[in-house]
Amino acid sequence: MTQFPRQFGKYEVIAEIGRGSMGTVLSAHDPFSQRKIAIKVAHPEFLEGGEAGERFRKLFFNEAHAAGLLDHPNILHVYDAGMEGQFCYLVIEFVEGAQTLEPYCKPDRLLPIREVVAIIYKMAKALDYAHRQGIIHRDIKPSNILLTLERDVKLADFSIALITRKDVKQTQFTGFLGSPLYMSPEQINEAAITNASDIFSLGAVMYLLLTGRQPFLADNLNAINRKITHEQPPPIQDLRHDLPEGLDYVLRRMLKKNPEARYATGLDLAADLAVVFEDLEAIHDEDALKAKFETIRRLGFFKEFSASEIWELIRASDWHTYPRQSVIIREGELDQSFYIILSGVVDIDKNGKSIHSLQQGDCFGEMGYLARTRRSATVVAKTDVSIMKINANTIDRASLDAQLRFLKVFVKVLIERLSDTTSALSHVN
Known about the structure:
The chain is of the alpha+beta class. The protein has helices at 51-67, 113-132, 185-188, 195-211, 221-230, 236-239, 247-254, 266-276, 286-297, 307-316, 366-371, 392-395, 400-428; strands spanning 7-8, 11-19, 23-30, 35-42, 78-84, 87-93, 99-100, 135-136, 145-147, 153-155, 162-163, 318-322, 327-329, 338-343, 345-350, 353-359, 363-364, 378-381, 385-390. The chain is globular, with a radius of gyration of 24 Å. The N and C termini lie far apart (72 Å).
């Protein structure tokens, strides 16, 4: 058995938690962030052998490059990558007790229909985000989707992802890439890959999770290819009679041979799944969303925003509540977020002394968001507080128009804040 060092870079190994044919996963401690992380280590033998070894090395680090561009709650985070002696390694998010969806693809272990739809809904949203960041996964399959103890899901393994961003200059992997049973017709034919390719693969996963049968199973690779490119899978109603109305339509559209006939975006797919299960627990409660809309449209910060732009910001931001006396920001911490107070009052403390209070409609954290510097003051909830939190990663979820509107208003707020500070200093002098 391969012996690993006790430390990879600054990361201190705790234990081995998983081993596959091409790599091993270790739990480890990050002394800088003081958190538990996972380390994915490539088996050294795959790095040897000239061109094949070099290709494997590139695929391994391609995962770090692609996933490192993404920040989404349903995508497994990749924090770092490096070499330790003969070992290539990735530092990834540690998810306690997570397992892949593979065990739930067997006829005797199928998940409830509602849970399957919730999983596909979340994956559709995650793929939509990745696609808008210029990343096509190309290898959607049950073993690359993790199910957490909280029954949430995480998309993993971006090793063969196609990066289409114009700001990324690197050679892309081409050719017959992916897992044959889940590949789209265009992947099989080595034709142009688009976002719709991931939608097809997700459809194959959904079919399997609902039925326990592969939609394009055959005895050999050529037969699989022929089924994927020319044949329809058995109608899902023939295999299950308890499926809700509309689910068959969604699945057939996901598995269309022509990519242009599939869902154009993951959000389109998610919207149809929401129609199938109007009470789906994974979908945000519409009343809660409307309440958020009514809350922020009354705030001065958003007076220049259109209704559609406000909805974009709602979906692109994180919402948090803090009980009285909770620390929201701590002096000296690295924090890149900008905060808008939706309700309640906060105190701004400097060196242990209260210097200012802010209330509903006020905002804070401009310099940390803009310059990514350490926080110069502590922010404490004086009452129960509800806050809208925005950072560079979450704002990317919004449309370009909404992002531009936000930046325009943000700069205006920043100028006003600097003007007030200058005026206060002039009175002191």
